[in-house]
Amino acid sequence: MSPPEHRPPSAPPPADAAPGDRSPFPTVRAGLTAGAPFGWLSDGLDDFKACKTASLFYGACFVVMGWVLVFAFKHAVQLITAVTTGFFLVGPFFAIGLYELSRRRERKLPPELGPTLAVWKANAAAIGIYSLVLIVLYLLWARASMVTFALFYSGGIPTMATFAAEVARFDNLEFLFAYFVVGGVFALLVFAFSVVSIPLMLDRGQDTVTAMIASFLALVRNPAAMVVWALAIVVLAAVGIATAFIGLAITGPLLGHATWHAYRELIGPAAEG
């Protein structure tokens, strides 16, 4: 694997890139190396340290959300697995406040929590449409999860404890293969259209379709970097979930801040577009 490439610090956005502005189709850079995501994570960690209080607030929200979902679906294992995977689907939306914290740090503004809570209003229509797309995909994945259990899981619907034990022992291999293939398709689809979508909508007022196409192009033009970035997201989110969601207090904000820096490197400044 290539070592992290040396990158100059991200430049603050130009004056004409304020939220709500309509910009031309963004310039999507190509050729980033497999080491680029390590730079994003390093920059994200710097943001986390600089915005610690506000970042931890969003991390706590991830933790509480996980606990609430587990409690609500504790008797429906066929759904709880989809709910857990849902973190990978809706994470980019819930991290919007973290993107704004990173942007405020770029602009040398104080890392205050208050201004980030309603920042989505700057481009509410586009972000709202994007959220509906994620919700539809999430509901489809929950339904697909139930169908996969019905078709491939032998022995009836398990409890959380017995299901976790079977996964650890690699029992029911046919089911595990089918489940992860189906889940992988949904995860790849969401990842392809969400790499830089919300940061673009937040930073430049882009519409939903343009932002999603730009994300897809970022994936296609930088396959090595995107594979490593996807693996980093899966590993850090899985660590957070595996620690009874407590780890998400750290890994969630770290991924949110790092995503902002991924956007900065994948998308050229507005002046280039």
Task: List the topology elements.
Blueprint lengths: L35 H15 L1 H21 L4 H18 L1 H11 L7 H4 L6 H29 L7 H9 L4 H20 L4 H8 L3 H14 L1 H20 L5 H19 L7
Tell me what portion of residues adopts beta-strand conformation: under 5%
Helix content: 55-70%
Mean pLDDT: 81
Question: Termini, distance in Å?
Answer: 31 Å
**Rg, Å, rounded:** 19 Å
- Determine the oligomeric state from the structure: single chain
Number of helices: 12
- The SS-based structural class is mainly alpha
Largest sheet: none
Helix and strand element order: HHHHHHHHHHHH
Low-confidence parts? 1-21
Query: What general outline do the C-alpha atoms trace?
Result: globular
Number of domains: 1
Q: What's the β-strand tally?
A: 0
Characterize this entry briefly.
It contains 12 helices and no strands.
What does this entry look like structurally?
It contains twelve helices and no strands. It is mostly helical and 273 residues long. The protein has one domain. It is globular and about 55 Å long. Mean pLDDT is 81; it is low at 1-21.
Which characteristics define this entry?
273 residues; globular; single chain; mainly alpha; 12 helices
